[in-house]
UniProtKB/TrEMBL annotation:
<dbReference type="InterPro" id="IPR004095">
    <property type="entry name" value="TGS"/>
</dbReference>
<dbReference type="Pfam" id="PF16897">
    <property type="entry name" value="MMR_HSR1_Xtn"/>
</dbReference>
<keyword id="KW-0342">GTP-binding</keyword>
<dbReference type="InterPro" id="IPR005225">
    <property type="entry name" value="Small_GTP-bd"/>
</dbReference>
<dbReference type="GO" id="GO:0003924">
    <property type="term" value="F:GTPase activity"/>
</dbReference>
<dbReference type="GO" id="GO:0005525">
    <property type="term" value="F:GTP binding"/>
</dbReference>
<dbReference type="InterPro" id="IPR031167">
    <property type="entry name" value="G_OBG"/>
</dbReference>
<keyword id="KW-0378">Hydrolase</keyword>
<dbReference type="Pfam" id="PF02824">
    <property type="entry name" value="TGS"/>
</dbReference>
<dbReference type="GO" id="GO:1903833">
    <property type="term" value="P:positive regulation of cellular response to amino acid starvation"/>
</dbReference>
<feature type="domain" description="TGS">
    <location>
        <begin position="292"/>
        <end position="367"/>
    </location>
</feature>
<protein>
    <submittedName>
        <fullName>P-loop containing nucleoside triphosphate hydrolase protein</fullName>
    </submittedName>
</protein>
<dbReference type="InterPro" id="IPR031662">
    <property type="entry name" value="GTP-binding_2"/>
</dbReference>
<dbReference type="Pfam" id="PF01926">
    <property type="entry name" value="MMR_HSR1"/>
</dbReference>
<feature type="domain" description="OBG-type G">
    <location>
        <begin position="65"/>
        <end position="292"/>
    </location>
</feature>
<dbReference type="InterPro" id="IPR006073">
    <property type="entry name" value="GTP-bd"/>
</dbReference>
<dbReference type="InterPro" id="IPR027417">
    <property type="entry name" value="P-loop_NTPase"/>
</dbReference>
């Protein structure tokens, strides 16, 4: 049996030698679809996947969110972890100093964020080179990927890493495509467009669906910029993970000011030098912003709010989520809440469970059994 990695290589080679034009468009689309299926298979443990499959590192999630440090060897991931947390992860000039996932706790604004130092990954990681597969599984469980890059290395490092993450279904800084797909038991295939996209048509969708043996389904493409890759992502949605990524260039002590200025202007990018202790607080602050967490200060009758100790919830959380964080059964006896802060229309505002909270709101919950 030809193994999956070889089949993937064959398809990639065929795609590379196929010229892109109107005539080959559908054929290329089908190849992309097959590639996506094989890559997903490669990630599943079991026969065919060989030693490449298998789980990530055995580190329990803790704290309010998890950030994964992903990067090539010796870019300074462990140096950064050791700077911003109390954990000391081994630092050395040789590649693969870190061999497993090392968790540290980053304290910020009353929140505890788990920072995961990971082994360096190399090209081919998505196919199981080095500890690539495990590193990528760990990255997939994070709320934010901090892609650590070496400012002294070539610009391709970033594209190469992105391609490795892309190959295992991680989508960085993107939203799921705006395409509705509903698989049905009968009725054939129905394809509709809100606005016909420029580079995705009915014929392409129909042939991909056939290739995936999806013979009964409803499709509504709502985005005029949708591509065949987006459509495949929607079919493969159980294998896709949409994660925010912040790019961090380390070792800026070793580059020219002009080049530094150029790096710092790239989108979603921060620069630092762990060696000279430059830019580290900025990196931490940007991480916090990217995580989009909300701090809630609770208040009890007759006392000041607990400003020293925040309760952390995700963005778009409601009073109900706040109750759940305080106590499992609090919402059963919930009567109303008073809210001071950005989410309140007047101060304080009396609200119910569905009220959406904002960062740094003060919340006073009134509960008790109704007579
Ligand atoms: N010039 C310079 N060197 C740095 C900086 N930060 C880290 N280093 C050096 O880079 C080397 C690698 O650092 P590590 O923290 O071990 O890198 P890593 O990314 O954890 O490496 P692996 O675990 O092997 O993947 C060490 O020799 C560090 O002293 C920096 O800001 N500037
Ligand atoms: K190293
Ligand atoms: Mg390391």
């Amino acid at each position: 049996m030809v193994n999956i990695t070889e089949k993937i290589k064959e398809i990639e080679a065929e795609m590379a030698r196929t010229q892109k034009n109107k005539a080959t468009e559908y054929h290329l689309g089908l190849l992309k679809g097959k590639l996506a299926r094989l890559r997903a298979q490669l990630l599943e443990p079991g026969p065919g996947a060989g030693s490449a499959g298998g789980p990530g590192f055995d580190v329990q999630k803790s704290g309010d969110a998890r950030i994964a440090l992903v990067g090539f060897p010796s870019v300074g991931k462990s140096t950064f972890l050791s700077k911003v947390t109390k954990t000391k992860s081994e630092v050395a000039a040789y590649s693969f100093t870190t061999l497993t996932a090392i968790p540290g706790v980053l304290e910020y604004g009353g929140a505890e964020i788990q920072l995961l130092d990971l082994p360096g990954i190399i090209e081919g990681a998505s196919e199981g080179k080095g500890r690539g597969r495990q590193v990528i599984s760990a990255a997939k469980t994070s709320d934010l990927i901090l892609m650590v890059l070496d400012a002294t290395k070539k610009a391709e490092q970033r594209t190469l890493l992105e391609a490795e993450l892309e190959a295992v279904g991680i989508r960085l800084n993107r939203e799921p495509p705006n395409i509705y797909l509903k698989v049905k038991k009968a009725g054939g295939v129905k394809i509709n467009f809100a606005q016909p996209p420029r580079s995705l048509d009915e014929k392409m969708i129909a042939s991909i669906l056939r290739d995936y043996k999806l013979l009964n389904c409803e499709v509504l493409v709502r985005d005029e910029n949708a591509t065949v890759d987006d459509f495949i992502d929607v079919i493969m949605k159980d294998h896709r993970k949409y994660i925010k990524c912040l790019y961090v260039y380390n070792k800026i002590d070793a580059v020219s000011l002009d080049f530094l200025d150029q790096l710092a202007r790239e989108p979603q990018t921060v620069v630092m030098s762990c060696e000279l202790d430059l830019g580290i607080p900025d990196v931490v602050e940007r991480c916090w912003k990217e995580l989009n967490l909300v701090r809630i200060y609770t208040k009890r009758k007759g006392t000041d709010p607990t400003f020293h100790e925040a309760l952390i919830v995700r963005s778009n959380s409601t009073i109900e989520d706040v109750c759940d964080r305080i106590h499992r059964t609090l919402k059963e006896t919930f009567k109303y809440a008073l809210v001071w802060g950005a989410s309140a229309r007047h101060i304080p505002q009396r609200v119910g469970l569905s009220h959406m909270v904002a960062d740094e709101d003060v919340v006073y919950i009134v509960s008790g059994y109704k007579a």
